[in-house]
Amino acid sequence: MVEVERFGEPTNELWEYLEIEIPVGVSNRHVHLSQQDLEMLFGHGHRLKARRELGQPGEFAAEEVVTLVGPRGVIEGVRIVGPLRDKTQVEISMTDAYRLGLRPPVRKSGDLEGTPGIAVVGPKGVVALGEGVILAARHIHMHTREAEKLGLKNDDRVRVRVAGERAQIMENVIIRVSDKYRLEMHVDTDEANAALLTNGDTVTILH
Amino acid sequence: MVEVERFGEPTNELWEYLEIEIPVGVSNRHVHLSQQDLEMLFGHGHRLKARRELGQPGEFAAEEVVTLVGPRGVIEGVRIVGPLRDKTQVEISMTDAYRLGLRPPVRKSGDLEGTPGIAVVGPKGVVALGEGVILAARHIHMHTREAEKLGLKNDDRVRVRVAGERAQIMENVIIRVSDKYRLEMHVDTDEANAALLTNGDTVTILH
After folding, report:
1. Residue B79, CA distances (Å) to A193, B45, B84, B92, B135 in order
2. Which CATH number fits domain B2-25+137-206: 3.40.50.2030, 3.40.50.300, 3.30.420.40, 2.40.40.20?
3. ipTM
4. Number of other CB atoms surrounding residue B38 within 10 Å
5. Which residues on chain A are in Cβ contact (under 8 Å) with B195?
6. What pTM value is reported for the model?
7. Contact B168 A166 (CB under 8 A)
8. Contact B191 A194 (CB under 8 A)
9. Given B165, B171, B190, which is nearest A190 (Cβ)?
10. Which residue from B33, B183, B10 is spatially nearest to B121, judged by alpha carbons?
11. Which residues have C-beta within 8 Å of that of residue A2, sequence separation ≥ 6?
12. Which run of H or of E encompasses A170?
C-alpha cells in the first residue's frame, strides 16, 4: 500500500504554488466486476475476499484472480479489485493490449461505451464481455478540502512533473475530487516504468 | 522501418526554433553480440542473417533470436541486432526487467560497467554475461549537418514533446551526432506505450 498520509494542513507558501508532493500508486492490470459477472466467474453467492487494502478508502485487491483471453494472447492471474461495481471493467496497459491483441482507448473509469470486449475466465465460468477494456486515464484522487485549497475541481486537467533520470512532464492528468478520496496519483505500469516510478514515489503538480 | 527521409534543407523559420519533426523508432528488447558470443550461441563461423533494415544505416534486425534467462523469469524470442559489436549488450524495458528479476540502470549504449548480467541461450550454446543489461537511455540520432543547423552537439540533452491524449514532455533526451546517422528518436517499449507512440510517429524538440 502506498503512503497516503503525507497531506496535512498548509504550513507554508508552497501551497500557493501547488508544489505539494503527490504520492504515486501504480495500477497493475486488474478487473472490476459486477455482481452478475462475479457469480458467473466464481459461483452463485460468491463474495470477494480482501487480500490487501488499496490507497483509496474501501478499495481492495481481492484474493480472486481471473484469466484474460484476447484475440492474440492470454494473461493469467489478473487481480480482481473490489468492491463490486455496476459494470465490469478491465484495466490493462498498452503493453498488455499488444499481448492480448486489443487496442483499447484511454478512458476515465466507468466510461466504457465503444471500448473493446474480452473473454474473462474464472474457476466456475466464463464471461464474454462485449465492451469494458480500457487504458485507465491517469488521474489524481484528492479530498474535496484539498481540491478547494488547490483551486482545483473535479475533471480539471493538470500537468505533473516526475523527477529523476527519466524526468518528464505528464499532461492531461485528470483531477478526481470526492469526500472519500485520499491524495494519490494513479498511473498504469507503462507510465510507471517509462518514468521509473514505483509505489510511494512522489510527483508534483505544475502551475 | 520508420520514415527517416523527412529531413531536408531548411526552408522556413521553423528551423530556428527547433520545431522540426523527429520520427520515432521504438526499440523492442534486443541483443547486440560480440563475435565471440555470437559463435558461442550460434556455432563456430556463424554469420548473422539480416531480416530487416533499421532506421540507422548499417543496423539490422537479424533472423536470429535468443532466450534471456534472469533470476525470476525467462523471455524467449529476443531479436539479435547487427552488426556485431565489441561487447555484448542486452537492451530491455523496465517491464521486461521486472519479469526477469533484474534492476538494470538507464545507460547510454556501450556504457556497461556495473550493469547486471544475465544468461543468454542460443541454439548452440549459452553465454553467462557478467554485465551488459541496460535500459537504453532515450536519444536522438542526427547527422552532423543537422546538429550544426540546430546548434546541438553530441551528448547534449534536450526536452522532447509528444502530442496526443497521453501528451508529455520527456527530459534528458540525449543527442547523438555522427556523419552516419539519420534523424530519428529512439525510445523503448515502456516509453512508447506510456506515450502511445508507434514507429513513424513524430515528436518535437523543445527550445
Report:
1. 21, 19, 13, 11, 16
2. 2.40.40.20
3. 0.88
4. 24
5. 194
6. 0.89
7. no
8. yes
9. B190
10. B33
11. A23, A24, A25, A55, A184, A199, A200
12. strand A168-178
Pick from B94, B166, B171: CB nearest A172: B166
Would you call B74 an interface residue with chain A, using a CB distance cutoff of 8 Å?
Answer: no
B168 CA: distance to closest CA in chain A (Å):
5
Grid coordinates given for B126:
549459452
The residue whose grid cell reads 526536452 is B159
User: DSSP readout, B8-63?
Assistant: -S--SGGGGGT--EEEEEEE-SEEE--HHHHHHHH-TT--PPEEEE-SSTT-EEEE
Alpha helices for chain B (secondary structure H)? 35-42, 94-100, 144-150, 189-195
A168 with B170: Cβ contact below 8 A: yes
Question: CA A34 → CA A83, A136, B108, distances in Å?
Answer: 9, 18, 47
Contact present, A158 and A204 (Cβ < 8 Å): no
Per-residue pLDDT of chain B (207 residues; tens, 9 = 90+): 333 344 444 444 444 445 789 999 999 999 999 999 999 999 999 999 999 999 899 999 999 999 999 999 999 999 999 999 999 999 999 999 999 999 999 999 999 999 999 999 999 999 999 999 999 999 999 999 999 999 999 999 999 999 999 999 999 999 999 999 999 999 999 999 999 999 999 999 997
For residues B58 and B84, the answer to whether their CB atoms sit within 8 Å is no
- CATH 2.40.40.20 domain locations along chain B: 2-25+137-206
Query: What distance in Å separates the CA atoms of residue B201 and residue A200, rounded to the nearest whole number?
Result: 33
Rounded to the nearest 5°, which phi and psi values hold at B113? -60, 130
The torsion of the CA quartet A75, A81, A85, A87, rounded to 10 degrees, works out to: -10
The number of helices, as runs of H, and strands, as runs of E, in chain A is: 4, 15
Is B148 in a helix, a strand, or coil? helix
Please answer yes or no on whether A193 and B195 come within 8 Å at the CB atom: no
Place of cell 553467462: B128
